[in-house]
Write a structure and sequence with these properties.
This protein is an alpha+beta fold. Helix content is 52%, strand content 25%. It has four helices and ten strands, in the order ααααββββββββββ. Strand 1 (173-183) and strand 2 form a beta hairpin. The protein is rod-shaped, with a radius of gyration of 59 Å. 13% of the residues are buried.
Length: 302
């Protein structure tokens, strides 16, 4: 083979190799660019997934914290479960900042969502229990109020009946009279309205029939007030005093009546002490039994 022919053959081989090398380089460049583009696409997609997971986590924690704030009293009993939710959320949030696996993070987030659902369900259960207790308490208060009202009404009725019985068991008098009497040596009584001639004052009255009053002796006290309101009494000491509604009162006459639940006529006397002078004017007579004034009258001496 001639040198010229050999040179031509070598040049042809070089050209072919050059073309093949150029094609290979072009293919490599194309593959590199395609791979970079695909990689960039994957990075963008991964970032979108990260943002999606972050948004899902933020929404979950916002709802959880809002639920906790709205039920502050009830959530205090679930502090341990709330602490678990907060710690898991923090771990997921930290994991999203660095190298992370979508499936691992998604798995953790799903588990956290289940825990949060359990927390919410427990809150609802507690709210229901609390509402039931409120309803029961309201019902009990209503029943108690009704019973108290009933008791109050019965107490009023009882008091009214007691008052009526007490009133019914108080002696009643009628035909009450008081007169000045002059005693003659013969023992005969002469009525007089002259103050200087009066030796005694006669008080008469009738106790009405009453089956509700206990039969037996009863103490009757009579007070005779002079025109100046001073009580006619033998002595101002306790020996001539009686209790009336917690107060000590002086009396003019005390008489013991044997009362047998029948109409009973009573007359008694106040005797003037020697040299005692009675003033002219109006005299008031009050009759007492227990803590009640059971009769009154008046008379005038001239």
């Amino acid at each position: 083979m001639s040198p010229q022919t050999e040179n031509q053959k070598s040049g042809m081989v070089f050209k072919v190799l050059t073309i093949v090398f150029a094609v290979a380089i072009a293919a490599l460049i194309f593959w590199s660019l395609s791979t970079k583009k695909e990689l960039n696409g994957l990075l963008v997609e991964k970032e979108n997934l990260r943002l999606e997971l972050k948004a899902e986590l933020d929404q979950l924690m916002t709802q959880h914290n809002q639920l906790k704030a709205e039920n502050e009293t009830l959530s205090a009993t679930l502090s341990e479960k709330d602490l678990l939710i907060q710690e898991n959320a923090k771990q997921i949030e930290e994991g999203l900042k660095y190298k992370w696996s979508y499936f691992n993070i998604k798995k953790q987030l799903t588990a956290l969502q289940e825990v949060a659902k359990g927390y919410e369900a427990k809150i609802e259960d507690l709210k229901l229990q609390n509402q039931n207790l409120i309803n029961e308490n309201t019902e009990v208060k209503g029943q108690l109020g009704a019973e108290q009202q009933k008791t109050s009404e019965l107490t009023v009725i009882k008091n009214q009946l007691t008052e009526k019985v007490e009133i019914a068991t108080i002696h009643k008098t009628y035909e009450v009279s008081a007169l000045g009497i002059r005693a003659k040596s013969s023992g005969k009584e002469v009525i007089t309205d002259k103050s200087k001639r009066v030796d005694k004052i006669k008080v008469c009255f009738t106790l009405a029939e009453n089956a509700l009053i206990q039969a037996g002796n009863c103490d009757i006290y009579i007070r005779i007030a002079q025109p100046d309101n001073a009580i006619l009494t033998p002595d101002m000491g306790d020996s001539y005093a009686f209790d009336y509604n917690g107060e000590k009162l002086q009396y003019s006459i005390k008489t013991v009546v044997n009362y047998e639940n029948q109409t009973t006529d009573v007359c008694c006397y106040w005797d003037k002490v020697d040299e005692q002078e009675l003033a002219a004017g109006a005299y008031q007579v009050d009759i007492y039994h227990g803590n009640s004034v059971i009769g009154q009258t008046s008379f005038i001496l001239k």
